[in-house]
Task: structure prediction
Amino acid sequence: MNTVGFIGLGIMGGPMAANLVRAGYSVTGYDLAPGGVERLREAGGNAGGGVAEIVREADVLITMLPDSPQVEEVVLTPGGVLEHAKPGLLYIDMSTIRPDTSRRVAQAGAALGVRVLDAPVSGGEKGAIDGTLSIMVGGAADDFAAARQVLEVLGTTIVHVGPSGAGQTVKAANQLVVGGIYALVAEAIVLLEASEVDPRKGLDVLAGGLAGSRILDLKRETMIKREFRPGFRVDLHHKDMGIALAAAREAGVALPVTGLIAQLIAAARAQGHGSLDHSALLKVIERINR
Amino acid sequence: MNTVGFIGLGIMGGPMAANLVRAGYSVTGYDLAPGGVERLREAGGNAGGGVAEIVREADVLITMLPDSPQVEEVVLTPGGVLEHAKPGLLYIDMSTIRPDTSRRVAQAGAALGVRVLDAPVSGGEKGAIDGTLSIMVGGAADDFAAARQVLEVLGTTIVHVGPSGAGQTVKAANQLVVGGIYALVAEAIVLLEASEVDPRKGLDVLAGGLAGSRILDLKRETMIKREFRPGFRVDLHHKDMGIALAAAREAGVALPVTGLIAQLIAAARAQGHGSLDHSALLKVIERINR
Amino acid sequence: MNTVGFIGLGIMGGPMAANLVRAGYSVTGYDLAPGGVERLREAGGNAGGGVAEIVREADVLITMLPDSPQVEEVVLTPGGVLEHAKPGLLYIDMSTIRPDTSRRVAQAGAALGVRVLDAPVSGGEKGAIDGTLSIMVGGAADDFAAARQVLEVLGTTIVHVGPSGAGQTVKAANQLVVGGIYALVAEAIVLLEASEVDPRKGLDVLAGGLAGSRILDLKRETMIKREFRPGFRVDLHHKDMGIALAAAREAGVALPVTGLIAQLIAAARAQGHGSLDHSALLKVIERINR
Amino acid sequence: MNTVGFIGLGIMGGPMAANLVRAGYSVTGYDLAPGGVERLREAGGNAGGGVAEIVREADVLITMLPDSPQVEEVVLTPGGVLEHAKPGLLYIDMSTIRPDTSRRVAQAGAALGVRVLDAPVSGGEKGAIDGTLSIMVGGAADDFAAARQVLEVLGTTIVHVGPSGAGQTVKAANQLVVGGIYALVAEAIVLLEASEVDPRKGLDVLAGGLAGSRILDLKRETMIKREFRPGFRVDLHHKDMGIALAAAREAGVALPVTGLIAQLIAAARAQGHGSLDHSALLKVIERINR
Result:
């Protein structure tokens, strides 16, 4: 389990692969953009010659890709991961994608003897660099046990939450709660300011009581100052809300608040704030009122 | 400042008045229901002969009443608090009511030389008994300074958040955030369970990351078990959402998520869960799906 | 039943009172603003010397006032309508107010032998001038029968919908549906335009099928052109949505879509469009997207 | 233009194909289920031997399929429509699918000289049988002109609304408005009934004024009686709301009311009402309140 293939060396995947090199793994990477591979080499990893080569030589394969269609293309199409995988490969998809796509990938893998885990993360670029991600893992218990050592290089909270797709479902639940709390804090700020109450004092009280949250702790000061440097971009949260609604549709449940929050985040994007931090949801609630 | 009049000796007001007795204040109380006065006497307080008598003798008057109409009646109508108040009285209304009512009471008081603070609390019955309430105070800085000693008997977090009505506005903001987080956690649970993911494991992950909140910390276990003993009753939260929407209307702002959450809490009540803990919002999200 | 007192001679009440004069009634009017009384005199009516005088001499009393507090003040306070009413007076409140206020007025009237109907209208200024209002009447069947002749001067659709307050409830239901359809048509326009589909062609198709509505028939052209001359003002619809939510609260029901629509109309007002036609809800949906 | 291939002979496609036979076209049909083909033969049409054969012989090809994935499979995959189409074929997809899928099909067709129109319909099974559908057509003006004669057999309102995908966008706009009006009427009924107002009388008034709509005209009686025989099934409307949200996402716009309505329709399905008429949205609003 010493040879790791890593496909997708972007903002998240790049530092994650570098951490694996640092931990002693032999990492061969691949990315459509040449910069990612270059940085991996500088960190001590190897440049892979393509998906086929990387997959054939890997004991563990990790993908970190933007969305469901990219995972489908890299993994399921002819010439992709599964076509070249040797039986017994442990394949960990750490992308945030739709749970039903994760399940399809896992089933296709199982038919070929490939062990597949879905393992989306939270914690952002900083967590990727520091190796302090939270990792939600779906798949078989055995495969989770086999992957644990590798995952512990990448994150500090690593939880096996259920069968294939379960990691994605938990990530979707996480994102709907996060998006919703931003909207609520935004409405609180708008109400306080319109009532000529100092929002700093008001949110201090909220943070100390039952309304308290990690978001209030970490973001209330920057939200009050309207500083929206990412952090986690609105565009990505917009993508994730699409996944959350798709997950709900797939599971056959209706989530009314999530349905509304998804549109407010879509509004942040429509207003041109896609590259700002997701706390910029405050700008949407403000704009509704101006 | 040693003589305290206390009107409203219910679930919250009763133990608050008793705490003041214990701290050495001479407390005279009044309540429409005889039980409250009786308990105050047992705790060492005095039974007041009516609003007029209590108000005339008090250095500090505290009211803890159910809603805006009761405060208006006890304070503003003929025979009420303001008619009998001596100039200089420090009057602290600790009820949760509409900010505009608090402002009207403060203005009417000011015209008579009565110093009025709005000082709603959070922390529930337990906080009232233990003297650990959070108290959000609106009014003049001088009056807040004068009231601090008394308030410190009742709570541990005591914040002067702005002019008259500001205490109520902060309380309204608190309640809209709390109601909203319950709805979000409920939607997360429903999504996880419908996807056959263990909600305990899923919420553990959420609690450890950016989705983390006091509510997840304190209530996720009871919500998963469907234990809804109050705590803070749905009926009261329904009242408070009415106040939040009235405060938004008064301030001239639109709060779309709050507008939806208010209806979901109204649904909890319509479904007969008014006496359950407000975390029973989970029952509403479940019922939408069955 | 020939002598009519008319309190409230504004945009709606003025032409309504004039229509009664034209139909042969002896009408004595009163309004806080002198212009309304002056116009009534020019139309052949009489200027009343105050509420007391008008009420004492009237067989039928009509009020057309802005909102619940004004009705409470004119009718219920000392010196108001009920204090001066002779038993048997037929009092028709045509204001749009909260159903529970209408019920309280009716009960207070009944105790004094005054027959009270709530009879809010729709049809706007044009309907008031042309005598083509729709009138929704709540109260006793006998009283409705007694009022019919007078009401037929004012409107063309006159329906007895139930006991006291029922007229207001139906008006509230009307307004929530109207507000909601505006929001839906606005979202349709925004979707069509953003997709580079000619909204005129698109809405023509909608108007001809199951999505068809009076609003699409009357307003789609002006909405597409962004012409928002009232018509019925956003400010008034905002007031009416407050009544609808209060009616729902009173009736113990949750109305999630209404809760959201009320906030979108509040947003139109917060954005400074209070004096525009309520079809300006389109500006809110547009602004969310810019 | 006399030979028509018709793929998808279900509840809608079956009677549409039969109408074309009756109008003198030579129709060859195909469906995965044998019953549809059998009925077409009885109506005077021909049974096709598969997609390839039908496409090769057709001047005009029509597809009427359940959703985007089926259209993609029948049209775009190897062995599908485009592989076998002769240049110049006029291909009319009358399925209700995502606008972006329609655009992709049109582009793929254009590259092969196939003229593609998207032409979703409204009017339901009855409209299909009677040949009275409304048909919203996206594509080139020439191609629309070429298709008009065939389409006039199937519908009475046939509108060219814009370029490829525009037909689907208009259909999506139609469905979001229809779903929303059902929700609004449902909330009106629940408010009226909870207020003990006869809903029949109340809705009669609404139907006669600005709140009037085709849905109130056609469905208020059955909604009040709780008769939910389809009509148009909840399951299909649920599918269509997914398309509307996907269309909004694709167009980069946020539609807050649509976001909420989509969840309420999802709730109807989650509650087991998928096979009922979409007016059964009333059951969702009722259940929220019980």
Q: What stands out?
A: The longest helix of chain B spans residues 166-194. The longest strand of chain B covers residues 155-162.
